[in-house]
Each structure stands twice: as C-alpha cells, then as structure tokens.
Specification:
Layout (H helix, E strand, L loop, with lengths): L4 H26 L10 H24 L1 H4 L2 H22 L4 H6 L1 H20 L5 H25 L10 H24 L7 H26 L1 H25 L6 H30 L6 H32 L3
Helix pairs in contact: 1-2, 1-4, 2-4, 2-8, 2-12, 4-6, 6-7, 7-8, 7-9, 8-9, 8-12, 9-10, 10-11, 11-12
Length: about 325
C-alpha cells in the first residue's frame, strides 16, 4: 500500500473534519434543540452521517483504492465536506420549504463529486473485483441520500410518501447505502482469493450492495420486493458479521478488533428490528413503529455497525500502511 504525503494529509483533513463533526453532533444531542427547531432523532441520525461517518468513510476510501488514493478530486471534497455538513444543519434547522431545500444543495454537490471521483477511478483503471464494486457502489449510493434529503427539505411528498419517509430514506442511503458497502469492501481486502471464505464473501457483498436499491424500489412498486430485499440485507449483513469474527485471529491491531466486534454484534441486534418492521408491514401487523425503528435499529445501525465498522477498518488499514 503506497501511501503518499498528499494522501496522509488528506486523511488527516478527514479525521479533523470527523472530530469537529463529532463535537458538533454531541452538542446537538446534549442540547434540547428540538424544543426550538425541528431536529429530532431522525435528523440527528442523518447529521451523524454527514458530520462524522462520511468524512471517516472518505479516509477509508483512500486506503482501499490506489486510483482514489491519488485523486485530486478527493482532496477538493475533503475541504468542501465540513462546510456542506454545516449548511445541512442550517437546512434541518428550518421548517421544510424552498430555503431549506436550497441549503441542502451543497451536500448534494459534495456527494455527487464523490460519486464522480469513483467513476473517474474506474475510467483510469477499469479492472473490477467484488470489493471494488462495493466501494464504488457506496460512493454512488450516497447521492441517493442527498437527493432524498433535498426532497425532504423542500417539503415535497414524492409518490405520496410523507415525512418521515423521505428523510428516513436519506438516512438509509447514508448508512446502509454508503457506510455498509465501504465496510464490505474493506473486509474483502483481507480475504485470500482462493479461500472458501471468499465465496461466502462474494455472496454477502453482492447481497448487501443490491439490497439498498431494491429496498427503495420495493417501497415504491412492490411490498414483496421490499420484504425480500430486507431479508436479503439481513442475511448479507449477518454473513458479514460472521466474516468479521472469522478474520479476527488474522488481525494484530487490538483496537481494530474491538471495533469490529462491536460492529458485528450490532448487526445481530439491530437487524432484528429491521426484520420485525419489514415482515410486520407486509402482513399488516404494526410490530414496531417508525419512531421506534429510529430509536432502536437506527441508532444501533448508525453508531454500532456503521461508525464502529468504519473506525475499526480505518485503525487496521492505517496501522498496516505504516509498515508498507
């Protein structure tokens, strides 16, 4: 892994952005801002993604792909991302309307540039393996979250979906669409090409990458597609957790192991609620409401799986780069 000085500087920028974002997010959590502005649990989950998970994910991208590691566009995005995230807070602080929608556009710009960086990397080096497909899918899916954020902030109800569905969809694409594929990609880089585990991983990776758009399609067109894609996602992420624990003996970094264990255990607990919601809605039983989903599955998935999974692989990747 050839890590240049420019790449290290870019990673430090991402780390500083994530650290400052974490401080801002903790202030939003501690202060009762929802008394004065419409920032509730779903808004706070999205802001965790924009302020903390996305910059950490960008740092992980630099370690996982040689072409992206040298991308000047990623360095531009590293400067723009914290500014756009702050503007997102201003957008969420306002009631839905034209101004709130306009304030969400800078975030769409950052996400679109990240997707463009991935596309340009493929043009530079067209070779694709499963981990790279997952990595690029995550970079592209993030734009879906940004698009749904704009729809939510403008106050539109696309296809008769009223709030909180548009904002929840933005959260879904930010964590399950962006963070999960990056974690999948980092996991795949640890597996030998000829091992039996590689075959299991390929199924897990493809399932987790395909599930995100299929769930969105199911919400719009077919309850059956929605339920089947939720089941696909649950099985894929449980398989990913199994791979985490299988790989632990091969990972020397203790802190990296701890974060991966937390991420794996979060999958087992958090996906229970996702399954209850998906199947319950299909059979017409309200086993768990959307607000309850946000406070259970949403928090576990965002903090336990997405954040800890990315941090775990960042620790492992950065430590290994020191010895290259």
């Amino acid at each position: 892994m050839n890590i240049t000085g420019a790449t290290l500087n870019q990673s430090r920028m991402n780390y500083r952005s994530a650290l400052m974002g974490a401080v801002v997010w903790m202030v939003l959590i501690v202060l009762p801002v929802d008394r004065f502005a419409p920032i509730g649990i779903i808004e706070k989950l999205f802001l965790l993604g924009a302020l903390v998970v996305v910059p950490l994910g960008m740092a992980l991208v630099s370690f996982l792909d040689a072409e992206l590691r040298e991308s000047p566009l990623l360095r531009v995005i590293a400067y723009l991302q914290p500014l756009a995230a702050i503007v997102v807070i201003c957008s969420l602080w306002r009631l839905p309307g034209m101004l709130a929608g306009l304030l969400a556009i800078p975030w769409m710009l950052v996400c679109s540039l990240l997707a463009l960086a991935g596309i340009l990397a493929v043009r530079k080096n067209p070779s694709l393996d499963i981990p790279r497909v997952a990595l690029l899918a995550g970079m592209i899916y993030l734009t879906g979250g940004a698009a749904w954020l704009i729809l939510s902030r403008v106050g539109k109800n696309p296809m008769n979906f009223s709030e909180p569905i548009p904002l929840l969809t933005a959260v879904h694409f930010t964590f399950t669409g962006f963070a999960a594929p990056l974690i999948v990609a980092a996991t795949g880089r640890r597996i030998r090409a000829s091992s039996v585990l590689k075959k299991i991983y390929n199924l897990v990776a493809l399932g987790s990458v395909l599930a995100t758009p299929l769930i969105a399609i199911g919400f719009v067109f077919s309850p059956i597609i929605k339920v089947l894609s939720i089941v696909m996602l649950i099985l894929s992420l449980h398989g990913l957790a199994f791979i985490f624990f299988w790989l632990l003996p091969t990972i020397p970094q203790s802190m990296g192991k701890i974060f991966l264990v937390i991420a794996g255990l979060s999958i087992f607990s958090g996906m229970i609620f996702a399954g209850m919601y998906g199947v319950g809605e299909y059979v017409g039983k309200l086993w768990i409401s959307i607000p309850q989903m946000a406070r259970t599955h949403g928090i576990i998935n965002a903090l336990g799986f997405s954040l800890c999974g990315i941090i775990g692989w960042l620790i492992i990747s950065s430590k290994e780069s020191e010895y290259q």
